[in-house]
Amino acid sequence: MAGRIDENAIRDIRDRSNLFEVVSDAVSLRRRGRSAVGLCPFHTEKTPSFTVSEERGFFHCFGCGEHGDIFTFVMKTQALPFPEAVRAVAERFGIPVPEDTGGPRTPAEPLVAVNAAAQAFFRGALRGPAGARARAYLTERAVAPESVERFALGFAPGGGDTLARHLRTQGLRLDDAVTAGLVMRRDSGGFLDRFRERLIFPIADAMGRVVAFGGRILPGGPESTDNPPPKYLNSPESPLFHKGRMVYGLGLAREAIRKRNRVIVVEGYLDVIALAQAGIEEVVAPLGTALTADQLRVLRRFSESVLACFDGDTAGRRAAARSFPIFIEAGLWGRGAFLPSGDDPDTYVRTHGRDALETLLGAAVPLVDAYIAELAGAQRDAVGRRADAAREVARVLRAVRTPFERDVLVRLAAERLGVREEALRSEGTSTATAPADARDATPGGGPEELLVELLVAEPGLAARVRAENILGDFEHPTWRSTAERLVAGGATLDRSELLQSLPRTLRDRVARRLLGENPDEDHDRMVADCIAAIRSRRARSQRGRLLEELRAAQARGDLVAERQLTRHLTEKTRT
Measuring CA to CA, which residue among 518, 515, 517 is closest to residue 23? Predict the structure, then answer.
């Protein structure tokens, strides 16, 4: 049983792990000087502002302000609590995790364990006597043995509670199997396997952990009866599995996506396997539902060229049209490739080969064409309906983020719908909110702000600032309280947590220093200049107060006070 992780172990894991490698699981990064940049996984953007420093082990988005270390990134992208994020990173890099025993396990740990045990069971069943029919089906579908291994396919035997009994023999709690969606409780007592007599497709997250399963009924089985079960069955939602935010095959497709800078979206598991087997590996599929904006946002981290396959019939064209607003919501333009009627990607590539499919993919058209054609075709002769179509286009326009793409959509829609461009533009205009920098801007600062920046970036400077006894001369309360925390905490202070408390304008500047974007700066000289400036400002302020008091003494005719104040003012001027 896992317990509390020792603080020294946490620091050791952070120091020995590689942030660049972990971020690359979710974001396509490119090197830029000492850092790397990519599209932020936490908000939609067109220009990369998400910056990673491998050397400093720190990330920061200059668009939305998200930042942190390797554990923060895993927590935010995998929805994990801190202890589990630490363990996930340690496991990734083969680092042992010394722990205090007796502490409670994190909620996801037993689910990961029970899914791993189920995957091993399913794979063994496919190889054994019970998996003969499933193996024959895979042969019929031309799925090569190498693909069976690569995608870790399995088989769920019948028998009602075969998996449940196996998990119990492994010492795993069936309550955890229920939470993971592997088994169900019978009304009469006991447990029932969710997947029975099905070909099994493991579903993995970005960390490579199996978080769910998909199962297909085999031909000649229950699907041929009068009351067939669903052909495909997925695990239910669980603390590990969120169907609308995951896609099938991304872990295996990630490198191919980066190399070819495109993502091909197909409908089903076997489509993914068939295309990958044919050498088109940058392919993924949604998990039994229509493609969602959240799934597209995940794909957008790796490439903005997302191409979806549709049937070439009327229903396929309508599906392409319906998908366009979803792509726009995710910040993507999107393209559609249309297959001949009666074909899916699996059958097409098996019948015609890779080159033919590549030709078809190369002929993909912008989804906006299908969208506008569907609106115009349905509303061409009805003035009222044409107006409804124009309002629908205007609604979508509000989500289009770049002026160029907005202009394209306006021109196409105006031409096809017979409305004025100005009308669409006015309908699609929405009130913009003030930029974050303007909202967060805080007056004051100067050398105080810069000194805080340097203290955050270089913990070793705290001792010098403490020795100079300069903090009492700070005028801005935010910078003074922050500097006091930094000087008191030194190197042990959590920089990420402190960064979150800063105003946005200062946060971005501090982040640049943490990322090491200005390696040639002379921080010692800069600290000296800040301290000198703060002291000079204090001296000017003191001289100003003495001068005011001197004038007041002269006005009231107080000669003694006038002589004393004149002497003090002369001394201050000399210093």
Answer: 515
CA distance 246 to 257: 16
Instruction: Enumerate the β-bridge partners of residue 36.
Output: 31, 52
Residue located via tokens 């039994």: 288
Instruction: Give the C-alpha separation, 226 to 142, whole Å.
Output: 29
- Which SS3 state, helix, strand or coil, does residue 24 take? coil
Residue 139 tokens read as: 């042969």
What's the burial of 149, exposed, middle or buried (CB within 10 Å: 0-12/13-18/19+)?
Answer: exposed
SS (H, E, C) 386-398: HHHHHHHHHHHHC
Determine the distance from the C-alpha atom of residue 493 to the mean position of all C-alpha atoms in its chain, rounded to a whole number.
26
Q: What are phi and psi of 551, to 5 degrees?
A: -65, -35
| Amino acid type, 185 | R
d(CA 484, CA 138): 66
d(CA 300, CA 304): 5
Q: How many Å apart are CA 71 and CA 19, to the nearest integer?
A: 9
Query: How many angstroms separate the CA atoms of 239 and 115, rounded?
Result: 12
Q: Residue 35 belongs to what H/E stretch?
A: strand 35-38
Instruction: Give how far Cα 278 sits from Cα of 110, 147, 185, 282, 421, Å.
Output: 37, 10, 42, 11, 45
Residue pLDDT, tens place only, 182-214: 999 998 888 999 999 999 999 998 667 899 999
Phi-psi region of 219 (alpha: psi -120 to 50; beta: other; left: phi over 0): beta
CA–CA gap between residue 12 and residue 70 (Å, rounded)? 12
- Give the chain's residues under pLDDT 70: 1-4, 79, 99-108, 206-207, 221-226, 378-386, 401-404, 426-445, 490-506, 516-521, 569, 571-575
Q: Are strands 283-284 and 306-311 parallel, antiparallel or unpaired?
A: unpaired
**Alpha carbons 23 and 80: distance in angstroms, whole number:** 15
Contact indicator for 286, 319 with CB cutoff of 8 Å: no
Tokens for 249, please give them.
Answer: 């095959």
> What is the pTM for the complete model shown?
0.64
E strand or H helix at 52: strand 50-53
> 17-47 in b/e burial notation, b at 16+ Cβ within 10 A?
bebbebbbbbbbbeeeeebbbbbbbbebbee
